[in-house]
Design brief:
The protein is built from five helices and five strands; from the N terminus they run E-H-E-H-E-H-E-H-E-H. The chain is 40% helix and 22% strand. With 159 residues, it is α/β, with parallel strands linked by helices.
């Protein structure tokens, strides 16, 4: 199964090494593709958040893989446990879903067009986190889901 992560903005240099570690680890289980999408609007100071979200949404929609199951990340979404994510991946595999795309918005979140296109809206946490931390948490959870599926010792939580 192919997993894409479309993220507004570049990776924070302080998080790059951790992201690389989990991305490399997750690639043992999935075909992973990360795309960084330019955020904001040129000369964005003073541009209303709705306009920023609209421009970022256009860029995201242009990069979404065809026929992918789209998961938009938002604080307003439904939280999922690590085991729940693993079970979701298993259902996708059995249900012939060949591609999943996670979408991480910028400073103002995701636009309505992306949220409408999403097959599900998922919350990583009720905390507000930077998109860099969201990427790191997501990538670690994707890796963890692979270890859970293979019953490997990484995950120590209750199964």
């Amino acid at each position: 199964m192919k997993i894409s992560i479309l993220a507004i903005g570049k990776c924070d240099p302080l998080l790059a090494r951790a992201l690389e570690h989990y991305e490399t680890s997750a690639k043992h289980y999935w075909q992973i593709r990360v795309q960084e999408i330019t955020g904001g609007v040129s000369g964005w100071k003073g541009v209303p958040p709705d306009e920023v979200r609209k421009k970022e949404s256009e860029r995201i929609m242009a990069k979404l893989p065809d026929r992918a199951e789209v998961i938009a990340l938002s604080r307003a979404g439904k939280e999922m446990s690590s085991v729940g994510l693993s079970e979701y991946f298993q259902r996708c595999a059995v249900g012939s879903v060949s591609s999943i795309a996670f979408v991480i918005g910028g400073a103002f979140g995701l636009g309505k067009v992306v949220l409408r296109r999403a097959d599900r809206v998922m919350a990583l946490s009720s905390f507000t986190v930077t998109h860099g931390f969201a990427r790191l948490i997501l990538m670690e959870q994707i890796y963890r889901a692979g270890t859970i599926m293979r019953n490997e010792p990484y995950h120590k939580g209750n199964l």
